[in-house]
Amino acid sequence: MNIKQYLDSTYLKTAEQADISEAENIGIFTEFIQEAIDENFKLIMIRPNRVALAKEMIAEAKSTVQIGTVIDFPEGKSSLEEKLHEAKVAINNGADDLDFVCNYEAFKNGDIDLVKEEIRECTELGLLNNKVVKWIIEVAALNEKEIIQLSSLIKNVVISTFQEDCFSKVFVKSSTGFYKTENNLPNGATIPAIKMMVENASPLPIKAAGGVRTYDEAVAMIKLGVKRIGTSGAKMIANGQSSNDEY
Ligand SMILES: O=C[C@H](O)COP(=O)(O)O
Question: Which of 8, 72, 96, 99 is catalytic?
């Protein structure tokens, strides 16, 4: 099995976050796209405002690299209408996967109907357009009970709304990679969080994202049952694989 099949190679930093100019950030971004083409990654995960440029570069190189983008990133607090609008623009620009940030603050505040509605409506938009949909729950913002409850909620909305053949196209994803924790606690995918997600979201597939940096960490996630790994260290992880690794 090729570990590249699991990797969503990710570049989501804005110029401001990287503390560089917009021109410098575009330079890094184009190198990132070229790397994905050269490495033949399955998919890149990028900001919505970069989808058109990535699409152009990938088409020019006659590459099969797919494009995923993030919606309502990184806080997930926008209205349903705003989420749907951003997703429609991304679809029109050629995105293949839509990684929505779930309104986890609303969930924590008990506004369950709002969360259920956004999951139903946004997932429907994605599936109708033949896209893969992922729901980022931001595990670092949740306690254990909340990780279990939100994973189950997403599963229940999906299985009660859509046909069984769609389940494999709707992921539950751990993290944005941008959540600020107190005391430098991990802000991304951890083994305990991923375990809880796998146990409670199945049959929906899980994407581990945030802080996955090494081949061994990636394999540990795969052994827990994740189907995708979102990482800004995809090349490093892919290069950590020896040719006869099996798992
Ligand atoms: O959505 C994916 C994450 O932003 C990737 O996080 P990372 O930069 O810590 O690998």
Answer: 99
Give dist(CA 153, CA 146) in Å, integer.
10
Residue 127 lies in a domain: yes
Using DSSP, state whether 164 is helix, strand or coil: helix
Q: Give the dihedral sign, CA 91/65/13/222.
A: positive
CA separation (Å) from 107 to 48, 114, 142, 149, 174?
25, 8, 10, 10, 15
User: Would the CB of 69 count as within 6 Å of ligand 1?
Assistant: no
Residue 113 has pLDDT above 50, yes or no: yes
- Is 247 inside a domain boundary? no
Q: Please name the residues in contact with 116: beta carbons below 8 A apart, sequence gap of 6 or more.
A: 153, 157
Does residue 1 surpass a pLDDT of 70?
A: no
Q: What is the pLDDT of residue 186?
A: 81
Judge whether 234 lies within some domain: yes
pLDDT for 70 beyond 50: yes
Question: ipTM score here?
Answer: 0.96
Whichever domain contains 174, its CATH number is 3.20.20.70
Per-residue pLDDT of 214-230, as tens digits, reads 999 999 999 999 999 99
**Residue 145 annotated among the catalytic residues of the structure:** no
Find, among 127, 134, 72, 132, the residue nearest to 105 by Cα: 72
97 is a catalytic site residue: no
* Tokens, residue 168: 């494999």
Domain limits at 224? Answer: 3-239
- Name the residue at shortest CA distance from atom 6 of ligand 1: 210
As for how many domains the chain has, the answer is 1
